[in-house]
Amino acid sequence: MSTRVALAVASFIVLIVHGMVFYDQFFNRWEKHQTAYFEQSRSLAKSDAEKRAMDERSPRIEQIIVTQFGESRVDRCTTCHAASDDPRFDGHAEPLRAHPYSIALGDVQRNGKWERRHKFTDFGCTICHDGQGRGLETFYAHGEDVFWPDPMLGYVTQANWHKEFKAKLTGKEYMQANCAQCHTEETFAGTPLVKHGRQLFFEKACYGCHRIEGLSNGTLGPDLTEVGKKFKINYLWEHTLNPRAFQPTSFMPNFDLRDDEIKALTVFLKSRRGKNFAETSLGQYRARLQQTKADEVVRPQTPVAASPIRGEQLISERSCTACHKLGDRDGHVAPDLSYEGLEHDEPWLMAHFREPKSRTPDSVMPVFGFSDPDFRSMTAYLMTRNTPAPYKTGEEIYKNLCARCHGDSGDGNGATYLYLDPAPRDLTKVAFMNSKPEARFLDSLRYGVPGTSMPAWDRVLTEEQRRTVLTFVFEKFVREARPELKAHKVPEQNPVASNADSVHRGEQIFLQRCTGCHGRKADGKGPNSLDISPRPRNLRNSFFVNSVPDRRMFDSILYGVQGTAMPSWIDYGLSQNDVGDLVNFIRSINPPQKASPPSDKASNLTSQMKQEVLCQECK
Question: 576-603: b or e for each residue (b if 16 or more CB lie within 10 Å)?
Fold first, then answer.
């Protein structure tokens, strides 16, 4: 008896399920929407002819095929949104609601009637709203499917997007990204967020790292010409907010932007889809051809006197403080320029402007292709930053000059540490701090560490100030008495003559012993380097390597570097002669550096910057 009841219940359930499927297949929601539209239209009709027209209509799939904008689009949105072009349904509930008119987008009112600039029969809906034009169910038509790349802009958030950002990713203003596919002029009233985002792209110096065709020529970061086609707005928002949200190894700075700035940049980036629908392919080709010809024009260069006033203006216009600190402005990314005139000379600054890696090999600063007259003016202004630091106590000195890199706690995790390679020294590592003589630290404070972001404080701080801040560091962060240092048996000069045989032997030792951390290229990026803090030295940093005497290199290799992963190789059988060969090999791959040759070419300028330079030259 119980078996019969179970079978009856199961059969009943199967019958219900089949009935639901049958009903869903033959009585679609879009048919209900259209039927409701016909009935309401009949009630709103003002003549018998209008009523008869409604009586003659029956539900059907409405379809627009749009061929004027890139690839052909099949657009069935008006199947549900049947009243989208019927002004009588203004204010009704969706989907039976008339689409609003917009003066900003070009709609006009004539003789009391509105006329659309963007007619549905020509444009469809998805060209502006995105979504899936072929879909006939809300889930698919609006792009709620997490695998659909183009959910409705500003209206739909997909299930796998982070909840804390969903509320920030809705709003009709996001559709400005699609308006900019045709309306590319900066003054267009319908795209204020795109305009704001474009301004921020330059104000935050994004143009220095990223390329956007027609706007910028950066090479350090990904090309953003088609970023809006490749990524959804949730990715663009989160990556702009925190570049390491999706890419943990990204070295893009976190600019601490406000939500309104992130939204503007997100809309601007979403508008970058690599194609302007308002232009034909032939028009785009001609525009690129004209731009190429303009770039090839060689204008006679007239000597321009370096102007500190002009340099200060340029540093502001070029958004240097988006990364650097200068006065009361701080981008929390790059070194402090407040005392640059005391830290470096003019040749160093000019060489660094032309090619940052020529002076700091692991710098993340991009190459800005400004003209040499601009670089000279910027250098002239920085050379005026030559007032010594006024701070008296060790705490004041550390807080104002050191904490930005080494951190308030001295652990090397200051505001800029993520962007500096090598990273700032962790001053709390007692093993390292107590293993080096005081003279070593005083020399680093006075002369800096060549090839790194550690500046020379020789002219910024007096000897008394340098000793004061060093005392503060040991009292505040080390907190242990310095033991008597044991003398290490190392030579003052390398006893092994440098020749081809010695270099070859040193290379073999390096390949056998050192590549796990320092890498086969000796650039500090070996397979173990990601798990090591501080990271292994880049042994191709010629400025650093050439500044280190033989004695220190022997000491570091034979006895290790306390507080780091560098072991004591004397415990693993390396002799002084082996180390001598190794030192000769390392020095052989680090020839003395020469200053970068001068250049007056501005071939890498952004289009916006090029225009400014040409205008300046015409004055």
Answer: bebbbbbbbbbbebbeeeeeeeeeeebe
Q: Decide: 391 and 460 in contact? Cβ < 8 Å.
A: no
The answer to whether 215 touches 206, Cβ cutoff 8 Å, is no
Residue 142 CB neighbours (<10 A): 19
Position 53 scores a pLDDT of 86
What pLDDT sits at residue 605? 44
Is-cis flag, bond preceding 422, omega within 30?
yes
The three-state secondary structure class of 212 is strand
Q: What is the CA radius of gyration of the chain?
A: 33
- Check if the beta carbon of residue 322 is closer than 8 Å to that of residue 331: yes
Residue type, 22: F
The answer to whether residues 22 and 14 touch, using CB atoms and an 8 Å cutoff, is no
pLDDT of residue 214: 84
Per-residue model confidence (pLDDT) at position 251: 80
- Contact yes or no for 613/601 (Cβ under 8 A): no
At residue 556's C-alpha, the angle toward residues 552 and 558, to 5°, is 115
Per residue, the 3-state secondary structure of 420-464, as one string, reads: CCCCCCCCCCHHHHCCCCHHHHHHHHHHCCCCCCCCCCCCCCCHH
Q: For 572-617, write each residue's pLDDT tens digit.
A: 999 999 999 999 999 999 988 654 444 443 444 444 444 444 444 4
Residue 297 CB coordination number (10 Å): 7
**Distance between CA atoms of 348 and 385, rounded to whole angstroms?**
15
Distances (CA, A) of 54 to 88, 512, 604: 14, 86, 63
Can you give the pLDDT at residue 286? 59
Could you count the other beta carbons within 10 Å of the beta carbon of residue 479? 10
DSSP classification of residue 538: -
φ, ψ of residue 73 in degrees (nearest 5): -115, 130
In this structure, are residues 96 and 79 in contact, taking their beta carbons and an 8 Å threshold? no
Query: Does position 313 have pLDDT exceeding 60, yes or no?
Result: yes
Q: Collect all residues with Cβ–Cβ distance below 8 Å to 190 and sequence separation of at least 6.
A: 102, 104, 105, 106, 176, 179, 183
Reading the block at residue 139, the tokens are: 């889930």
Residue written as token pair 């086969």? 520
Dihedral-angle region of residue 99 (phi above 0 means left; psi in -120 to 50 means alpha; beta otherwise): beta
